[in-house]
Design goal:
By secondary structure, this protein is mainly alpha-helical. It has 5 domains: 5-98, no CATH class; 148-185 and 206-318, no CATH class; 345-355 and 376-464, no CATH class; 512-652, Orthogonal Bundle (Tetracycline Repressor, domain 2); 721-888, no CATH class. The chain is built from 35 helices and no strands. It has helices at 5-10, 15-20, 26-29, 35-44, 51-56, 74-98, 100-185, 199-230, 242-246, 271-274, 277-301, 304-316, 320-342, 345-355, 377-411, 421-425, 433-455, 457-465, 467-482, 496-503, 506-527, 538-554, 559-583, 600-620, 622-625, 628-664, 687-703, 713-735, 742-766, 780-791, 810-820, 826-830, 834-843, 846-867, 872-888. The longest helix has 86 residues, at 100-185. It is elongated and about 185 Å long. The termini are far apart. Keywords: Golgi apparatus, Membrane. Residues 267-478 form the Conserved oligomeric Golgi complex subunit 5 helical domain. It is a peripheral membrane protein. One of its GO terms (cellular component) is Golgi membrane. This is Conserved oligomeric Golgi complex subunit 5.
Length: 891
């Protein structure tokens, strides 16, 4: 059965569609089917084979083609062909009938597409025509222009070669004249000059000739550099000096890049130019040699003018950065060699052996020693310090040369381009020449000193022990270069360069500081060697303070070393404070005043306080001897010594004041308002005053004797403050004694006299400044005690007059007025004990005490008015008190 008609028509031909045809039509459906070959095959009775089958595989004789039309009869073949034609016609007709709508639409689309293709074809034709016109207008002129441009380039190259050749010839002739002037012109005397000249004229003439030669060399260098630029990128390595060869790989300074000359013809290809090249190379070598000699001479003699001329020559030769870098490296290397030689013990040994007498032929020759013996140690030490002095001298010379070079580079400018030479040199240098030199010097010092200290115990011990002497050598070094450099090394300011160099000696400095710290710690340990049995005292404190002062004085000449020693001393002083704090007794027995003698704890604390006080006293005097910056380092630790001393003394002083105040407060147990005092035997002092005198004698003889604080004015304040407290407390208690009669006043006067005697004896035996009473030195408190006697016997009207109450505080006068009146005292009004009130007054200001009295007066007035009591007699005392309070407002 035939396939649908639409399938054959719609699907395009492909191997897949061939396989869908009926077997009888497969041969006819092939694109390679040839009717003539098929008819010939049928007539010949042979099978018809497609050309593609014959190419892919041969047809064997035994191969049988099934139902091949070629093997049938002609009539049968024609019948089959006719049938096939009819069948195909029917199928086509069926396809057309079934798909006539699609065929019509495709035909219409094809017709429309045909019209569009016609317009496109017309447009393409116009485009081809326009393109042809443009080709005629553009291509022909372009080809002509290209020819002319090529010709112009060749003319320009020829013109450039001629121009550069002309310039080269001019420069070469100028160089010849300059070289001739440099070699012989300066040595030919001017015939026009007088034959007889003075020495000054000859000196000036020689200087002018030298200046002229230097200028000629600089001009020749500029000509050589320009000639080298003219020769192009094929410059030979023979043109490079030793300086340039060293840095050729890193930076071929002065040589143009290859890209600058890619389109230029080298002048070396010109025969007229090539003839001059050897002469220019010789001239360059001579100018370079002269330049190097001028540089060395200028640095050696520190001739800035000559050095500036040589640097100008180097700049003209395009080798200034390389020259400066090479000079800095050579000077740094020279310093490194000097330092290495100074610390080389093998050379020191050879030097000492060479100074000794020549050995006899039979004497045994030992190997060179690298460490001295006990006998040769002084010779080795002297040789070492001599080498170090030479090393410092060489370091100073090299440093001055570097700074001279940098100064000239900073000042000198090129006359044409106005380029500063230092900026030009910095194109190759990473830092300024001086900074580079200082860094190299510090690095070399640090390395050689570290290696020397590590390899030789002799060097380590000698230079650590003699580190101050080594520092003094470097002080001389800084002083020598200070004239030529901007470095400063004084107590107030140290240049960073000097600090870097001295930090390179940190190995020996640390060893010296270790020795110093060990010495300080040994003095501290020796002071505490007796432990609690024999605690340190005045002698040990003085020894420790002197050790600290001696160490600071030894390092006083160097601002950095003395600060380091001060920091080390601070640690030792802090150790003293910590050890004393651990040894101080703080229990009740250390402050008890029972007697009859001081407790062992008080003796220990007294010895420790004495030790702290004398250590602090001597160390505090260092503020006048040392610089302020140095003393400020140890000042906190010195203050800690005094604070530790106060932590020992203050609790005992507080206990003494409390005990004496308690004894004085016992006066209120006696009735001073009676006509006669039965407590006073035979008109003597009161019992409380006898107790007070005994207790004061106990404190003086037993307690204060353990504290050897001396008689210095700084220690005197402890006793003086205690005496002032006693007088003030006694007067306050006396002023509030109530009731007070005439006999009581006399008894109090007797007690005051006894108190003066006791205090005078206390001060006389505590001070060696005067033999006798010294209560006048107490100050206002003593005047207050002396003024208290007449106050007791004044009339009421005299209590407000200043001439009768001079030396007494207003509060004491107020108390005495209230004692005479029926008005209650402030402590009675508030329900306080007398001792509590006195303590309150001591802890508060006078203004607060006056306010308290004023408040008591106001309270009494209000209470009296409310109760309706008679107050005429008491008002006179109120008025007196008001007048005293009013007078306090004027103070």
């Amino acid at each position: 059965m035939a396939a649908p008609a639409g399938t054959w028509l719609a699907a395009p031909w492909s191997p897949t569609t061939i396989s869908l045809h009926p077997p009888d039509y497969s041969v006819f459906a092939s694109p390679e089917f040839d009717p003539n070959d098929y008819a010939n095959a049928v007539l010949a009775g042979e099978p018809y084979v497609l050309p593609s089958d014959t190419r892919t595989k041969p047809v064997l004789p035994s191969t049988k083609v099934a139902e091949t039309p070629g093997k049938e009869e002609i009539s049968i073949a024609i019948s089959k062909l006719t049938f096939g034609i009819d069948d195909v016609s029917k199928q086509i007709k069926a396809l057309v009938t079934n798909h006539h709508q699609d065929l019509l639409s495709q035909a219409a689309s094809a017709n429309e597409l045909s019209g569009s293709l016609t317009s496109v074809r017309a447009g393409l034709a116009d485009l081809d025509h326009s393109l042809e016109k443009l080709r005629v207008k553009v291509r022909v002129p372009y080809q002509s222009l290209q020819t002319n441009v090529s010709r112009l380039q060749k003319l320009q190259q020829a013109s450039d070669v001629l121009r550069r050749t002309s310039r080269f010839v001019i420069l070469a002739r100028r160089l010849q004249n300059q070289m001739a002037e440099m070699e012989s012109g300066s040595s030919t005397p001017d015939q026009s000059l007088p034959l007889i000249r003075s020495k000054s004229d000859e000196s000036a003439l020689g200087q002018d000739l030298e200046d002229g030669k230097e200028r000629t060399i600089a001009k020749a260098a500029l000509s050589i550099a320009e000639l080298g630029m003219s020769l192009g990128p094929s410059v030979s390595r023979t043109w490079l000096t030793s300086l340039q060869r060293r840095y050729w790989v890193a930076r071929p300074h002065g040589c143009p890049k290859k890209t600058d000359f890619e389109s230029r013809i080298s002048l070396r290809s010109v025969n007229a130019i090539a003839v001059h090249v050897p002469y220019i190379e010789d001239a360059r070598a001579k100018v370079t040699s002269e330049m190097e000699n001028m540089v060395l001479t200028g640095l050696t003699s520190l001739n800035q003018s000559l050095l500036a001329s040589s640097l100008q020559t180097a700049y003209n030769l395009r080798v200034l950065p390389e020259l400066v870098q090479n000079l800095i490296l050579e000077l740094s290397q020279a310093v490194d060699d000097r330092i290495r030689t100074a610390f080389d013990l093998s050379k020191i040994s050879k030097e000492i052996l060479s100074k000794d007498s020549a050995p006899s032929p039979t004497q045994y020759k030992s190997r060179v020693r690298t460490e001295p013996t006990n006998l040769t140690a002084p010779q080795w030490t002297a040789a070492l310090w001599a080498r170090l002095e030479v090393m410092v001298q060489d370091m100073a010379e090299c440093c001055v040369k570097v700074y001279t070079l940098e100064r000239v580079l900073k000042i000198k400018k090129d006359t044409v381009s106005h380029v500063v030479f230092l900026d030009e040199a910095m194109k190759l240098l990473e830092n300024k020449p001086s900074a580079t030199f200082w860094t190299a010097l510090a690095r070399s010092l640090e390395k050689n000193t570290r290696d020397a200290a590590r390899s030789s115990m002799f060097l380590q011990q000698t230079l650590s022990t003699g580190y101050p002497r080594l520092l003094r050598l470097f002080h001389e070094f800084f002083a020598k270069i200070a004239v030529h450099t901007d470095t400063t090394y004084i107590h107030t300011y140290q240049s960073p360069e000097t600090v870097i160099v001295l930090r390179a000696l940190s190995n020996f400095e640390s060893l010296y500081l270790t020795r110093s710290s060990t010495k300080l710690n040994e003095s501290v340990s020796q002071a505490f060697s007796g432990e609690m049995r024999t605690p340190p005292g005045m002698v040990q404190g003085i020894n420790v303070a002197r050790t600290v002062a001696n160490e600071l004085d030894s390092a006083r000449f160097d601002p950095l070393l003395v600060k380091a020693v001060a920091k080390s001393a601070t640690a030792s002083i802090d150790t003293i404070v910590s050890r004393v704090d651990g040894s101080v007794s703080r229990d009740r027995s250390s402050v008890t005043l029972v007697g009859p003698s001081a407790t062992p704890q008080q003796a220990i604390n007294g010895s420790l306080a004495t030790f702290l006080y004398h250590t602090w006293l001597l160390l505090s005097q260092l503020g006048e001897e040392q610089k302020e910056t140095v003393y400020n380092i140890i000042k906190p630790s010195v203050d800690n010594l005094h604070a530790a001393y106060k932590r020992i003394v203050n609790p005992l002083l507080t206990a003494i004041r409390r005990e004496l105040g308690a004894i004085i407060s016992k006066m209120h147990r006696f009735d001073f308002g009676r006509s006669a005092d039965p407590m006073a035997g035979m008109g003597g002092t009161s019992l409380y005053m006898k107790d007070f005198v005994e207790k004061l004698a106990f404190i003086k003889n037993e307690i204060f004797s353990k504290f050897g604080i001396g008689d210095e004015k700084r220690a005197w304040y402890v006793i003086m403050s205690l005496v002032q407290y006693i007088i003030k407390t006694f007067v306050l208690h006396v002023s509030i004694v109530q009731p007070l009669g005439e006999a009581g006043k006399l008894q109090l006067t007797s007690d005051m006299t006894e108190l003066e005697f006791a205090l005078s004896a206390f001060l006389v035996e505590s001070s060696q400044e005067k033999r006798g009473g010294n209560l006048e030195s107490v100050g206002p408190e003593y005047k207050m005690l002396r003024a208290m006697r007449p106050l007791l016997f004044l009339e009421n009207s005299q209590l407000v007059l200043s001439q009768y109450t001079a030396g007494l505080p207003p509060l004491i006068v107020l108390h005495h007025i209230l004692v005479r009146s029926p008005i209650p005292l402030p402590h009675s009004l508030h329900g306080w004990q007398e001792a509590e009130y006195v303590r309150w007054v001591d802890e508060h200001t006078e203004e607060e005490a006056w306010t308290l009295v004023d408040g008591g007066l106001s309270h009494w007035e209000r209470t009296t008015e409310s109760e309706g009591s008679e107050k005429e007699d008491a008002m006179q005392y109120v008025n007196l008190a008001r007048k005293v309070l009013a007078a306090t407002q004027l103070l």
